[in-house]
Write a structure and sequence with these properties.
The protein has 2 domains: 144 residues, Rossmann fold (3-Layer(aba) Sandwich); 131 residues, 3-Layer(aba) Sandwich (Rossmann fold), CATH 3.40.50. It is built from 13 helices and 11 strands. The longest helix is centred in the middle third of the chain and has 15 residues. The chain is an alpha/beta fold. Helix 3 packs across helix 4 and helix 8 crosses helix 9. Helix 1 links the parallel strand 1 and strand 2. It has a 5-stranded parallel β-sheet with strand order 2-1-9-10-11, sandwiched between helices.
Length: 290
Amino acid sequence: MAPQPEALPLAGITVAVPATRRAKETAALVRRWGGEPLVAPLLQEVPVPDETRLRQATEAVIAAGPTWSVHLTGVGTRRWFERAEAWGLGPALTDCLRAAQLIPRGQKATAALAQSGLEPAWVPAGETSAEISAWLVPRLGATDTVAVQLFGEPVPGFVGELAGAGAAVIEVAPYEWALPPDPADRASAEALVTAIASGEVQAIVITSAVQATHLFAVARGLGCEAALRDRLIRSVFAAAVGEVASQGLEREGVPVDLVAAPPRMGALVRSLAEAADRVRAKAGRGSARP
């Protein structure tokens, strides 16, 4: 017999899901464990407004002939190749990457490379930047150049580790994250922030550092930044999909209660369900007044 809803671990717990991509999937996972998801879009992939730096980075990669090329997302890799093609640099970029050793972070980046006939030298099993760094850094030296396709935001820690090994690093940013421009999406985002700040939410799942950045940007616009931070620190259980995602909240002064291992969406929500007693305990400690 299937368990009754009230017997599921997250029953009675409202979980904030500040996501756009995979929001429906995340919400379904939360419901599967008995929770009530509160979903709102907090970020959107948009082309970089000024492509000068992207073109300069592309030309630098072609001129350098990198020994390694790291691809952190499929959408970023495809956009990079599309823009290079539009500038008449597509064949030159493909040729120089074919001579390099390619490291896609996961399946989507691998598929994007395959569309251009490029094969990876290695793919991290857990699809994380940390795995790439641990594997690649010992293989780097002063004669290496590494192209790094970014995923909407800078990754100074990751880039710094590669540079620290002596390699020259060329950062390639084909897109960036922005708050969704649609008024209805903005209203949903504001409603989500208000719900957290007013104590209506017991947990939040973070899948990108920029989600936290935008969460507080919206709160500042609403005049409830302090209330939001206080709630997240004192009574809302914060769960992050990985170390990079957790850093977004930590930069805002909010400690993260749980980091999923492995860093996957399913593991994140499952870990949250396993920590349901901790979620309820934190929500029961005195609440802040917005």
